[in-house]
């Protein structure tokens, strides 16, 4: 990604950004954008190959990036990576807590419970698996809290220090089928506010992005049929999105850079910024 690909640019030269989940769809984009603004970027991911591919791409286009195999749920793994980042790239100024996700074992098959119609292989609310639910809560909530414990200490009193967590639409109103993921993202929004208050006198601003629906390579099978038509789920999403379209990933990058910029957002801390075409504002009527 070049500077000219960005919706706008902020000056991150001399800054070090740590991005968790950086091998994934959204956070790899964030890592590319941060590098295009001049930041040195540490890409942390359980999937080293995915993070390394993004780091190589950034390096090939003149940026500075290192990939690190990291489990955001393992404090020892985080501490070890922290030491490597310090050596390779320096002190963390910006932390993007992007690792997160859902699990099929924490997902119901149907939107509504109808005891008179439970086809074979249906996972009802009553079948949800405790381990699947714990996995989702830990990955999203602890996976945001632990990296913050490890990296935020050195961010205290650093000019422009900023943390961005990734919440979701389902934090405002739960989406059907995914009670654990919705609850875990609500917990991230809550933690964002808590951290913002806790660090308010240290110069660290803490905010979250709540992405609406973005058409990406990863979800294209869910959103589009093989011949490029909208699926039933897409129609439902768009009918609840007042702007009547999916987001463009650049619109998420714009929100990220805005929140990170001390010039643009220096008095903003503790917010969860929806980037959703009005989805979270719409009652459906
Ligand atoms: P993704 O699955 O493409 O990327 C997630 C990355 O996190 C993967 O590379 C994975 O290897 C990594 N990861 C998983 N467990 C890890 C662990 N224990 N330690 C370190 N890394 C780990 O997901 P995405 O769509 O890019 O989503 C990124 C964030 O945005 C997530 O928090 C997700 O919940 C959130 N989000 C996504 C959307 C969306 O539409 N894609 C919408 C709202 C919120």
Residue share in helices? 25-40%
Number of helices: 9
- Average pLDDT, rounded to a whole number, is 96
> What Rg do the Cα atoms give?
19 Å
Structural class: alpha/beta
Strand order of the largest sheet: 3-2-1-4-5-6-7
Query: Quick one: CATH class of the largest domain?
Result: Alpha Beta
Low-pLDDT runs: none
Give the overall silhouette.
globular
State the end-to-end CA separation: 40 Å
Based on the structure given, which CATH architecture of the largest domain is correct?
A: 3-Layer(aba) Sandwich
Quick recap:
The chain is an alpha/beta fold. It is built from nine helices and seven strands, in the order E-H-E-H-E-H-E-H-E-H-E-H-H-H-H-E. It has two domains: 10-103 and 135-212 and 248-274, Rossmann fold; 219-246, no CATH class.
Detailed description of the structure:
The longest helix is centred in the middle third of the chain and has 23 residues. The chain has 285 residues and is an alpha/beta fold. The chain folds into two domains: 199 residues, Rossmann fold (3-Layer(aba) Sandwich), CATH 3.40.50.720; 28 residues, no CATH class. Helix 1 links the parallel strand 1 and strand 2. Helix content is 39%, strand content 13%. Helix 1 packs parallel to helix 2 and helix 1 crosses helix 8. It is globular and about 60 Å long. The model has no long low-confidence stretch (mean pLDDT 96). 42% of the residues are buried. Nicotinamide-adenine-dinucleotide binds next to helix 1 and helix 4. The site of nicotinamide-adenine-dinucleotide (NAD) has 26 residues, from helix 1 and helix 4.
